[in-house]
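Retro notes, structure queue

What went well: the backlog is down to a handful. What didn't: a couple of records were mislabeled last round, so from now on we paste the full input next to the output in the thread. Example, using Neurobeachin beta-propeller domain-containing protein from Xiphophorus couchianus:
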Amino acid sequence: INVGCHRRQISDLLDQSIQISSQCFVITADNRFILLCGFWDKSFRVYSTDTGKLTQIVFGHRDVVTCLARSESYIGGDCYVLTGSRDATLLLWYWNGKLSSIGESPGSECFTTPRAILTGHDCEVTSVSVCAELGLVISGCKEGPCLVHSMNGDLLRTLEGPESCLRPRLIQSSTEGHCMIYYDKGHFCLFSVNGKLLRHMEVQDNIKAMLLSRDGQYLLTGGDGGVVSVWQVSDLKQLFTFPGCDAGIRSMAMSHDQRCIITGMASGSIVLFYNDFNRWHHEYQTRY
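Corresponding output:
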């Protein structure tokens, strides 16, 4: 029975081969719906955060959907949703904020079609990012390079990192035209969307979550070490490290005003950190 603390539990089974990560989930801008992928039937699904009820099932891929991302939202809560799959393709969908569903006309659930099909990878897509303001989609696959597509589906370029950067795991892009990619074994690369490698660094932690600030100037990272770090994107300088936690960090989010960092821990707990990006901002420092 859907009551009490179990009222908002999603009990649908994911494909056994899927390793659940924060990239399997997307929350809509109004926080009312969760989009979830990794189901055995090759769908991704929409659930109400208030009731835990399934509200839509969307099909389109020929294999299990492995990752999700959404663009920034427009007025009314509309946005683009990007899905990556084991079939080595990406599909770009439109989220209708008014109807609270994927698709642009009411009652069209059965015939929901993607806005674009993006190809170019030759193995499972593992990480995706979409920036509607720049009209770009950035994606990485299990064994291969990261690709930049237009939102129409045109393959624009490949992002080539140093030789040690082979397997992309996390991707974040900013409206300023920067793309931050985390590869396995602690490697970070900062690219311009034109494909130029701007910076490269290596960290000791096994990173599981990263976030860019809204203005694209700051990067937050967290991983198995249980430490949240703040970096300056322009030169990848470490600005601050929050006190360590007793468990690894698995996911990260920020409140709308960017004053609160929320981390999901390997232990099942949720930890909140107070944050103020202004303290590192040059104008703020000189004024105060």
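Agreed that this is the format going forward. Reviewer comment attached to the example: DSSP finds one helix and 24 strands in the chain.
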